[in-house]
């Protein structure tokens, strides 16, 4: 999972929590919402603005809820309604982009990520999202430009993720020196960054440093749930190290944890 995907899922989780707080169920203790104070001179326009903000959060919470349930078309409908209510906020565009990607509408997703990035040139996380989309769709050089913007943005909340994505993308682009620099910086900030660890394992493997590659893939598997890609990489590394026992264990894990993928390969 790329770092941007993790950020988007966290965003959806936050939206889902916001929606639940308003649907009659109890909120978790310790999460105190700010209460808006009504000015002594009552202004109907302020009341309308407050209602619109609440409606926006409700719609985004519903979008997150439907996304979690796999009801993607419904989720998209609620996110679009939220966007129409407030054209100036980027999260509605970002959530729509994530949903469109899951629906297989990649070009639509890319346009929405770009729209959000153009709306928020000072928000590193939003710029990082568009860079990640570009890199995943075969545009690593252009993606690195957006990662550079993300890293230069005043909002540095996603710096480690932007570095991890930039490093992985630089590796795809053949910029090995930059890849290693960015990935090591990401791991200095967050030692358990799963995407940075997997990318470092791949970097070491490509340079023929197989023992170092083993250490990174083992750290990656300890940091987060396994994926098909990291298990396949681990098999390649252990094959180069000549450890047939380790290869067999990882192949067995791949079959057990991802049976549909293993079955499709055996049929092919």
Instruction: Round the mean pLDDT to the nearest integer and report it.
Output: 84
Oligomeric composition of the shown chains: single chain
Number of DSSP helical runs: 14
Major beta-sheet overview: none
Strand percent estimate: under 5%
Low-pLDDT stretches:
12-42
Span from first to last CA?
Answer: 25 Å
SSE-based structural type: mainly alpha
Q: Could you state the order of secondary-structure elements as H and E?
A: HHHHHHHHHHHHHH
- Approximate shape: globular
Helix content percent band: over 70%
Q: Can you count the beta strands? A: 0
Evaluate the radius of gyration.
Answer: 21 Å
Write structural notes for this entry:
It is built from 14 helices and no strands. 39% of the residues are buried. About 12% of the residues have low confidence. The protein is globular. By secondary structure, the protein is mostly helical. The two termini are 25 Å apart. α2 runs antiparallel to α3, α4 packs antiparallel against α5 and α10 runs antiparallel to α11. The longest helix has 25 residues. Helix content is 75%, strand content 0%.
List keywords for this structure.
268 residues; 0% strand
Quick structural summary:
This protein is mainly α and 268 residues long.
Tell me the layout of helices and strands.
Elements: H1 3-20, H2 44-68, H3 72-85, H4 91-102, H5 106-119, H6 124-136, H7 140-152, H8 159-172, H9 176-189, H10 194-206, H11 210-223, H12 228-241, H13 244-257, H14 259-267
Helix pairs in contact: 1-2, 1-4, 1-6, 2-3, 3-4, 4-5, 5-6, 6-7, 6-8, 7-8, 8-9, 8-10, 9-10, 10-11, 11-12, 12-13, 13-14
């Amino acid at each position: 999972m790329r770092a941007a995907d993790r950020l988007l899922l966290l965003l959806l989780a936050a939206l889902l929590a916001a929606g639940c707080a308003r649907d009659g169920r109890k909120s978790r203790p310790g999460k105190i919402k700010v209460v808006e104070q009504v000015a002594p001179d009552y202004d109907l326009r302020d009341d309308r603005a407050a209602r619109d903000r609440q409606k926006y959060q409700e719609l985004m919470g519903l979008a997150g809820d439907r996304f979690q349930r796999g009801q993607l078309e419904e989720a998209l409908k609620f996110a679009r309604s939220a966007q129409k209510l407030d054209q100036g906020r980027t999260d509605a565009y970002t959530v729509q982009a994530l949903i469109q990607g899951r629906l297989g509408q990649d070009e639509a997703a890319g346009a929405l990520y770009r729209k959000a990035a153009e709306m928020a040139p000072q928000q590193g996380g939003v710029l990082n999202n568009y860079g990640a989309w570009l890199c995943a769709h075969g545009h690593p050089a252009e993606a690195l430009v957006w990662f550079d913007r993300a890293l230069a943005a005043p909002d540095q909340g996603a710096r480690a993720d932007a570095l991890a994505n930039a490093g992985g993308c630089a590796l795809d682009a053949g910029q090995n020196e930059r890849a290693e620099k960015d990935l090591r910086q990401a791991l200095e900030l967050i030692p358990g960054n799963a995407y940075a660890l997997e990318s470092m394992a791949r970097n070491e493997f490509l340079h023929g440093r197989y023992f170092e590659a083993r250490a990174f893939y083992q750290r990656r598997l300890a940091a987060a749930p396994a994926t098909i890609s990291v298990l396949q990489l681990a098999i390649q590394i252990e094959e180069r190290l000549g450890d047939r026992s380790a290869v067999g264990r990882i192949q067995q894990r791949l079959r057990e944890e991802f049976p549909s993928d293993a079955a499709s390969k055996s049929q092919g």
